[in-house]
Design a protein that fits this description.
Elements: E1 2-10, E2 15-20, E3 25-29, E4 46-54, E5 57-65, H1 67-74
Antiparallel strand pairs: 1-2, 1-4, 2-3, 4-5
């Protein structure tokens, strides 16, 4: 299982690219994203995926959003600090 960051994803076109750990572009189609409902990725998200080599280049399959990193990045309010 490879990891990478979403470089860009166009929900209207249904595809985009992930930048893998080697700095290479990996094509991702919305049908390769695991999830219910509207399947989309956001720029900068960390994802895990199966990387395959095709005649057109690298492709990501079975793409999963790294939920722990997703939850941490969505926290907009820091936890309160209490004095003892």
């Amino acid at each position: 299982m490879a990891k990478g960051k979403v470089k860009w994803f166009d929900p209207k076109k249904g595809y985009g690219f992930v930048l893998n750990d080697e700095g290479e572009d990996v094509f991702v189609h919305y049908t390769s994203i695991i999830g219910d409902g509207f399947r989309c990725l956001r720029n900068g998200q960390t994802v895990e995926y199966d990387e395959i080599e095709s005649d057109k280049g690298l492709q990501g399959r079975q793409v999963r959003i790294d939920e722990l990193k997703q939850a941490m990045s969505e926290r907009s309010v820091p936890e309160p600090e209490f004095e003892e």
